[in-house]
Inverse folding.
């Protein structure tokens, strides 16, 4: 004993005191489902690719997208971005411009020539894809990557379906579309254009295909009966938009009236403007709130001088092109009712944009198929009643959009693959609980400088059929990606590590996040409360 | 402000760190190799703001001095929970003084170092509001007046907490403590008393005085760093939440401190040579009620009856601070 006077014990560290025993709740790191991912019809893991983009690792970000969607450059232009609509950041300032970043990544890929390879060994199975639209091309892409031999047959002269023959070039430049299609074909997919499949069963048998995916789309413009004089110039929007891809531009005249309130009506009206119409008037029988077109499509159309005529129906078209309109009124159920009030509207041509139907004649005679309301019924695996024949896109019951079609293609491809291999579809990771805005601690997020939004807005410019919406450059794409709040998933901000009063959070290597040291964690809950993205949950200790 | 603004990186300079951030711009607390001056196993209550404030400040001082640092610590919560004989949480040279004399002990250490020619070693004195504002104030004022080369840090939790929550000279008006019960016509601590220690320190015209809260660790770090660049008497007053004494949820410890600043009740500023040189502006202004409602020590202002008169009085204090320091 050579200790100083009155000292009997050696100096010890408080590490001997395992304060974890005090705890009645423990913090646990969780991953929650961000609303953008949940909202994406193509099933993209948006937050994951934004995470890569935030670091400027654009190729990794792009590779993450093409796990699910072969069309980032197309998507970034034409998708109605349901991801942005549900983005939690909208409650803070403005939603993250997810699709602008996606487009930037897609354009980068084209510029840099990034390509993809098949992930699986050749399976020896042959799959026929009917229709080279978004859904068919998406299915072909995924099937090829899964090792199958794919043949696409399309009735049209060029691939793309509605992406080429429906969406105007000012929204989707054809070279961009072609570049992304070429990348799919480079996987070894065979494309046969000008090949209308008249009888699906015959073609399956003749080509010795093991399965088929049908995605013929909905290319027939729905007509409405409008009494019209012989000289009246009436055409449907689908034909108008399709003819834009031909050599001769359609002649519409100076005053063009478009009948309908969906996105196709907007496309037709804006196309008419670009073809030189001085007036493009959209007649719709309901109100702005009820129209099917997306808000931004309407806004862009209005900016370009398209005129909207709400609550009106077209009764008849006279010899000289004069249309007779009847004013409508909403009844208490919100349904438009005629009022008997008539008015005249001069027009040189009338474009009907009243919806589209699918040509299902190729299915005639195929047993076990169920067709209802002009679309083919499919089960949860996208298979029709006929084993081995799958279908997707606009010809099955679903919302009709490019993104939904692409999502169908992916889902069908995975199910076709499983069906061909006689296995069940590999179950994806179980869906996490959704990350709500209330679960975030927004104090920690920077107020995004307001210069961002105007800059995005300012790039909208109209000039003939050149693209209206311009892209982001590397700097503001990076900025936009970094506005992501990373809802429900740790992005390594170090708050839990920095703010633990008990040093009970262990910081692991970059990318490996953190660990709680339960020997010392007292369960105060500060880490969970102060986590910006809501990725820590307090769980009661077992008693 | 002393803190450096950081280019927009998702969480900017609000969170402790960020994987996208240059390590140079990251906080000391985000550093996996921070010194952890006060390490785990200490016996502070769940969610203790003082344990947090002490680690922020001392780790920053350790970095600023390359680990050449000695601290003298007054009796109080910080000393009791960190050093129950024979264990200690301190991973730096640290010594416990009497309740009243931490500033004097720090002065003595600084003098001894000067004699030994050790200009590389710096000295910190620290204590709670009891040891600083009340019991040790004479020693502290002397240290200021002599301009001794010490940074003194007060961790202000607004009462004598470890002895059972008795009122101190730093307890705010209307707050309930064991010695200012929520009874009578004017429940809780009285208005018009108590000491504003930061302004008292400023009155000594010392080189540096600053206030901070545990809700902004980067601000604490920047102020410690600034203080260590200077010599002479320096004073840092950090508001630290006490979930036990304030009767708030342990998880809300930082949130409550943040509201103290965002309501204007606790002005965050810096002063050099007696003049306010910078203030932390309020980022999202909140009414004082939001701050008070989270704390049981003010519950008598809301039930059984809302005390509009008292609430208005407290709001007036916040408004006066906002005006005095230009917090908006």
């Amino acid at each position: 004993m050579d200790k100083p006077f009155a000292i009997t014990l050696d100096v010890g560290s408080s590490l001997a005191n395992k304060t974890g025993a005090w705890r009645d709740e423990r913090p646990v790191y969780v991953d929650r489902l961000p609303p953008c991912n949940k909202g994406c019809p193509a099933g993209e893991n948006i937050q994951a690719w934004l995470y890569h983009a935030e670091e400027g690792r654009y190729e990794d970000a792009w590779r993450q997208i093409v796990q699910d969607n072969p069309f980032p450059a197309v998507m970034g232009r034409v998708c109605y971005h349901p991801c942005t609509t549900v983005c939690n950041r909208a409650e803070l300032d403005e939603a993250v411009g997810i699709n602008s970043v996606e487009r930037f990544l897609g354009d980068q890929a084209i510029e840099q020539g990034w390509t993809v390879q098949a992930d699986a060994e050749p399976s020896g199975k042959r799959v026929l894809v009917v229709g080279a639209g978004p859904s068919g091309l998406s299915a072909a892409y995924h099937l090829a990557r899964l090792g199958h031999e794919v043949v696409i047959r399309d009735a049209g002269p060029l691939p793309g379906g509605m992406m080429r023959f429906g969406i105007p070039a000012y929204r989707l430049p054809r070279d961009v579309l072609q570049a992304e299609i070429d990348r799919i074909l480079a996987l070894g997919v065979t494309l046969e254009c000008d090949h209308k499949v008249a009888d699906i069963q015959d073609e399956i048998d003749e080509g010795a295909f093991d399965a088929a995916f049908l995605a013929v789309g909905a290319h027939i413009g729905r007509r409405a009966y409008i009494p019209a004089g012989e000289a009246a110039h009436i055409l449907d929007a689908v034909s108008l938009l399709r003819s834009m891809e031909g050599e001769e531009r359609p002649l519409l005249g100076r005053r063009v009236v478009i009948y309908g309130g969906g996105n196709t009506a907007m496309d037709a009206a804006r196309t008419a403007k670009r073809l030189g119409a001085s007036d493009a008037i959209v007649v719709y029988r309901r109100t702005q709130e009820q129209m099917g077109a997306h808000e931004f499509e309407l806004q862009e159309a209005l900016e370009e001088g398209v005129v909207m005529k709400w609550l009106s129906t077209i009764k008849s078209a006279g010899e000289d092109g004069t249309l007779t309109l009847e004013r409508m009124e909403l009844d208490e159920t919100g349904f438009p009712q005629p009022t008997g009030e008539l008015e005249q509207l001069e027009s040189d041509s009338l474009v009907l944009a009243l919806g589209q139907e699918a040509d299902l004649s190729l299915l005639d005679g195929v047993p076990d198929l169920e067709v209802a309301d002009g679309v083919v019924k499919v089960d949860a695996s996208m298979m029709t009643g006929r084993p081995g024949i799958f279908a997707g896109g606009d010809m099955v019951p679903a919302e009709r959009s490019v993104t939904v079609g692409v999502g169908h293609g992916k889902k069908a491809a995975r199910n076709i693959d499983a069906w061909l291999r006689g296995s069940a579809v590999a179950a994806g990771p179980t869906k996490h609980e959704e990350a709500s805005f209330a679960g975030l601690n927004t104090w920690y997020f920077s107020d995004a400088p307001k210069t961002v939004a105007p800059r995005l807005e300012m790039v909208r410019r109209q000039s003939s059929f050149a693209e209206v919406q311009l892209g982001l450059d590397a700097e503001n794409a990076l900025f936009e990606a970094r506005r992501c709040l990373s809802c429900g998933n740790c992005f390594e901000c170090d708050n839990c590590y920095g703010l633990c009063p008990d040093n009970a959070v262990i910081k692991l290597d970059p990318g490996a996040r953190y660990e709680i040291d339960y020997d010392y964690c007292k369960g105060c809950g500060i880490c969970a409360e102060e986590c910006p993205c809501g990725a820590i949950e307090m769980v009661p200790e077992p008693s | 402000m002393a803190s450096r603004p950081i280019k927009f990186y998702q969480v900017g300079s609000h969170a402790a760190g960020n994987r996208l951030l240059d390590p140079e711009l990251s906080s000391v607390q985000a550093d996996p190799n921070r010194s952890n001056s006060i390490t785990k196993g200490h016996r502070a209550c769940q969610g203790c703001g003082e344990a947090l404030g002490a680690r922020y400040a001392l780790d920053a001082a350790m970095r600023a001095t390359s680990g050449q640092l000695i601290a003298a610590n007054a009796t109080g919560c910080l000393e009791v929970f960190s050093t129950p004989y024979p264990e200690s949480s301190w991973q730096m040279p640290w010594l416990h003084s009497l309740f009243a004399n931490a500033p004097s002990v720090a002065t003595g250490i600084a003098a001894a170092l000067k004699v030994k020619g050790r200009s590389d070693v710096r000295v910190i004195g620290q204590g709670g509001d009891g040891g600083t504002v009340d019991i040790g104030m004479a020693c502290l004022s002397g240290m200021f007046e002599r301009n001794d080369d010490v940074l003194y840090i007060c961790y202000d939790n607004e009462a004598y907490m470890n002895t059972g929550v008795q009122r101190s000279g730093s307890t705010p008006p209307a707050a309930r403590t064991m010695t200012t019960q929520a009874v009578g016509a004017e429940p809780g601590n009285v208005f018009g008393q108590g000491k504003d220690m930061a302004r008292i320190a400023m009155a000594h015209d010392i080189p540096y005085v600053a206030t901070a809260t545990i809700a902004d660790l980067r601000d604490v770090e920047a102020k410690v760093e600034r203080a260590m660049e200077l010599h002479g008497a320096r004073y840092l007053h950090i508001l630290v939440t006490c979930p036990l004494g304030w009767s708030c949820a342990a998880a809300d410890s930082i949130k409550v401190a943040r509201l103290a600043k965002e309501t204007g009740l606790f002005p965050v500023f810096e002063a050099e040579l007696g003049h306010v040189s910078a203030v932390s502006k309020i980022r999202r202004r909140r009414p004082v009620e939001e701050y008070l409602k989270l704390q049981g020590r003010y519950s008598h202002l809301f039930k059984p009856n809302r005390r509009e008169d008292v609430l208005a009085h407290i709001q007036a204090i916040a408004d006066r601070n906002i005006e005095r320091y230009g917090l908006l």
In short: The domain at 23-325 of chain B is CATH 3.40.50.970 (Rossmann fold). Chain B touches chain A through 49 residues (CB under 8 Å). DSSP finds eleven helices and nine strands in chain B. Residues 308-325 of chain B form the longest helix (18 residues).
